[in-house]
Specification:
Blueprint: H1 2-16, E1 21-22, E2 25-29, E3 35-37, E4 42-43, E5 55-61, E6 64-72, E7 78-79, H2 96-100, E8 107-118, E9 125-139, E10 143-148, H3 149-153, H4 158-168, H5 188-197, E11 201-205, H6 213-231, E12 242-243, H7 249-264, H8 273-285, E13 301-307, H9 312-317, E14 325-328, E15 335-339, E16 342-348, H10 356-359, E17 378-380
Parallel strand pairs: 2-9, 10-11, 10-13, 11-12, 11-17, 13-14
Antiparallel strand pairs: 1-4, 2-3, 5-6, 5-8, 6-7, 8-9, 14-15, 15-16
Length: 381
Amino acid sequence: MLKSINRLAEKVESTFSKHSGASDIVIVKHADGELRTTPWFVHCDGQIQPHDTRVQVRVCIGGKGTELFMSVGRDHQCSFHPSDLDAAAASYLPSESQLQMLPLVPGKNEAVFEVRQLEENTQRWSVQSAIEANIFLWEATDRVVAFDYEGALLRSDAWAKEAKEAMLGTKKATEWDGKDKSGMHDGVGSLLSSLNHGGYRILITTNSPISRMSNRRSAISAASSAEVDRWGDQAELPDIPVMCGTDHTAAVLAKKLASKALAVAGKQGKQNDCKRSSLSLVADLFRIAGSPDSENESGGGFAGGFCRSEDVEAFVDSGVPVSGIVAVDRFGTSLQVVQQHGLAQAGWKSFGEFPAATMFPSLCKSSPGSRDMPSPGVLLL
């Protein structure tokens, strides 16, 4: 079975091999001015040669180039200190001084990673491609609500659909528009908007390959427009950061297929490992340097999260408080609060019925519905 899974994964990998992508980035500013960031995961397409000194990736923020550069290393992953010998030695974290020099504003910052090549004739750098992402600057006192993209946001797994199309050869990857035809669960847009106006930051995690992140952002944007058309402006989603891991298409598909095979056999797979890692990385940003892992003296961090029941353990292990986790079924017709010893008996039949203001009371000191801080974004992991 494992060989069959690998063959299928390789077929999908060949379909998406020319795609590039980047995870969104979260930077948290502490009271003393220290900036702490999640890893900068950026992946170049297969046409770029790894470890080529004539290739560099320039970080641009707000339409302007910066003096921060990355190199293309093994497996076309970009890093700040690549290593030919050990991929694990590559650094995906810029230094504190590099972070401080970036022209960041609170909330969302549009970023472009320009892949540039040195032309031998002119000795000038020319842009070969551009990889888009977003950088979000948060405060250490911010409270975060996490959402699982595959389980809590949309009715179905968009990546599974894309992989199936690629394996069956019924649709070319370049024709896929990134829109999940089944759409969002009813009421999700209103819930996200309510949390946003209540002063919460929103984080979305995904198991999708890094090469599909552009599609994920497009899908959320399209879903947001659909929510507004149906429910009005109050259902408009805030800016949404998208976070993922570094796994390539083949690796993600192999894990997904293996997880499904284990589920049939009555065993638990490891599909939620990526989400656990992403959530843990964000949780670490809020901790005071030198304090125990269990303590968070800044007052910020996770307030809760929405996920499928099979991902509850990953959320809890990552530092999301059990009392703030809501388990959602695949149809979005059953929402149950998670308790220490399992799911609560009482629940709600839709996101529209969920009492957001009760479980996540407003953090704003001003009047209800208004904000006294920059609009928070939603981070897709």
